[in-house]
Amino acid sequence: MRKTAILINTARGGLVDESALAAALKQRRIAGAAFDVLTEEPPRSGNPLLDLDLPNFILTPHNAWASRTAMQAMADQLIENLEAFARAAPRNRVV
To answer: Does residue 29 carry a catalytic annotation?
Structure first.
């Protein structure tokens, strides 16, 4: 990556080598990073990103799913999936 790159991961933990990222941030080989997911959730002691005290790294809790709107959307999708399954018309299938 370029030294000016900012890496953002809000997708899945484990996509990034966290030790390598910590080293790159400390050595300024990358401009910055922002994460809300780690390899292990909930995070465990010893994760190299948990102890970083750097101005070029932001770690926030992975809790976007917890808003009322998101919870209602999940419930609506669950109900739609169950109703579709009962009609023998499953949706959101992985084949």
So the answer is: no
Known catalytic residue at 18? no
Tokens 């292990």 sit on residue: 40
Q: Which of 40, 41, 80, 83 is catalytic?
A: 41
Residue spans per domain, the chain: 1-62, 63-95
Model confidence pLDDT, tens digit, residues 12-27: 888 999 999 999 999 9
pLDDT band at 64 (very low <50, low <70, confident <90, very high): low
Q: Annotate 9-60 with DSSP letters as a single string.
A: E-S-TTSS-HHHHHHHHHTTSSSEEEES--SSSS--TT-TTTT---TTEEE-
